[in-house]
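agent> call fold_tool(seq_1)
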Amino acid sequence: MNKIGRIIFLIIVILLIGIIIGSINTVGQRSYFENAKDEFENNIKDPNHTNLPVVVEKDRTTKIAQKIDTTIYNNFKKILKKIAQD
């Protein structure tokens, strides 16, 4: 298998792993989002509520996820750049 074939195979494997990880049921994160969304919607409907949060505070998991996303994106750009150079 030549170099380009190995790189394409690696990209496909990485994408499949990402799809599998993304489809795993993450009850904790989903319930957190649903609770926050419901609270926000209830606050909007309440005519006496005037102090809605404008900026959501980032927790530790959000910061870690953003760093991982940035790393994956940068590595993907490097791989595509190498493929384009060959």
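agent> call fold_tool(seq_2)
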Amino acid sequence: MKKYLYLIFISLSLSNCYTYKTSAETDDIKETQPETGQKSKKQLTANVAAVNQADLSATSSEKIGPVKASKPRAVSITEKLEPNKFYKIDVADRSYKIQVDKWESDSLVAHVIHKPKKILKFHKNQINQSTIAERRFSQPVADILTVTAYAGIGVGIWALVSK
């Protein structure tokens, strides 16, 4: 039993609350999740007003479709990789987790996360742009780790008290 308990503690200590997501994944998440607060109310009001305006100007035989948002513009790789942020990139079939330092003309100067002495330089054409993933805080993972930690503390207290 102690062996399994130690394995659980070790696995929880090695996990973290950060995940790497590509820009396409984050755009999909933003589209599927409604915004909260005043922005969503204003957006709903604007959509209703647009539909009402279109309804007034349309004839009975025309169909009115949903109001679509414009697609985001294409972003260059220099705009995607901002200094002092963490990314996961693929270069020549190798994956690197880096912190961007700066851009020197067409070259990216970065270092491996938690190893500032190991400096990497890549030309912008070497980096696979479709697989650039930005590090983001994951609230669901944090919640799972918190609940698990509280449960472990509760079981530990129960084990001490029940003896």
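agent> summarizing second result for user.
The two ends are 16 Å apart (CA to CA). Helices lie at 2-14, 23-32, 38-57, 77-80, 139-162.
agent> awaiting next instruction.
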